[in-house]
């Protein structure tokens, strides 16, 4: 994971992403049962955001609620709850988000996210139906390796989400 992390951060930095180091911090409650890889990843920076600040990976500060970002780490869950029309919908939303922990948020074109599902798989979801996801990587290490070395041929979902659309 460390090599994948280093390579992913290097590519993000070369694309103009802001990378700020993290200081020591206790593990916040939302990550108390997270996989070790996610905790290590979120502990390795205090800020990791795109040049336009419209896409960012979540850090320990985000999960602790001490970040200055306008969006809290579970913003899309909260939006879903606000839109729920019934107790049954509320229950379904709670069940979905109990199995999905966001690791990246984006407000670039549409509200979208990457999350680690409770089985370790990385999924992508977007508005208006945040609970309709697609698998983008088998695990966090695979995602970071994808970030570090773009897919061939063409531009995939991860490339577009992190680096914007390709040349027109």
Task: Describe, in plain words, how this protein is organized in 3D.
The protein has 168 residues and is of the alpha+beta class. It has a single domain, classed as SMI1/KNR4-like (3-Layer(aba) Sandwich). 38% of the residues lie in helices and 18% in strands. Strands 1-2-3-4-5-6-7 form a seven-stranded antiparallel beta sheet. Strand 6 and strand 7 form a beta hairpin. The longest helix is centred in the first third of the chain and has 13 residues.
CATH third-tier fold name: SMI1/KNR4-like
> What would CATH call the class?
Alpha Beta
Alpha-beta classification: alpha+beta
Number of domains: 1
The main sheet comes to: 7 strands, antiparallel
Q: Approximately what portion of the residues adopt beta-strand conformation? A: 15-25%
Descriptive keywords:
7-stranded antiparallel beta sheet, 168 residues, globular, 7 helices, 18% strand, 38% helix, alpha+beta, SMI1/KNR4-like
Q: Which helices and strands occur, and which strands form pairs?
A:
Layout: H1 2-14, E1 18-20, H2 36-43, E2 47-49, E3 55-57, H3 60-64, H4 75-83, H5 87-98, E4 100-106, E5 112-117, E6 122-126, E7 134-137, H6 140-148, H7 157-163
Antiparallel strand pairs: 1-2, 2-3, 3-4, 4-5, 5-6, 6-7
Helix pairs in contact: 1-6
């Amino acid at each position: 994971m460390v090599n994948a992390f280093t390579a992913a951060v290097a590519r993000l930095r070369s694309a103009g992403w802001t990378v700020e180091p993290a200081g020591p911090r206790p593990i916040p409650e939302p990550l108390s049962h997270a996989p070790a890889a996610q905790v290590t990843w979120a502990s390795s920076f205090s800020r990791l955001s795109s040049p336009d600040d419209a896409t960012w990976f979540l850090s320990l500060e985000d999960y602790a609620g001490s970040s200055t970002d306008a969006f809290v780490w579970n913003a899309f869950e909260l939006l879903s709850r606000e839109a729920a029309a019934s107790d049954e919908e509320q229950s379904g939303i709670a069940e979905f988000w109990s199995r999905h922990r966001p690791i990246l948020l984006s407000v670039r074109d549409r509200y979208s996210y990457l999350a680690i599902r409770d089985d370790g798989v990385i999924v992508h979801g977007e508005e208006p139906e945040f609970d309709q996801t697609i698998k983008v990587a088998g695990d966090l290490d695979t995602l970071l390796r994808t970030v570090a070395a773009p897919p061939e041929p063409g531009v995939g979902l991860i490339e577009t989400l992190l680096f914007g659309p390709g040349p027109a």
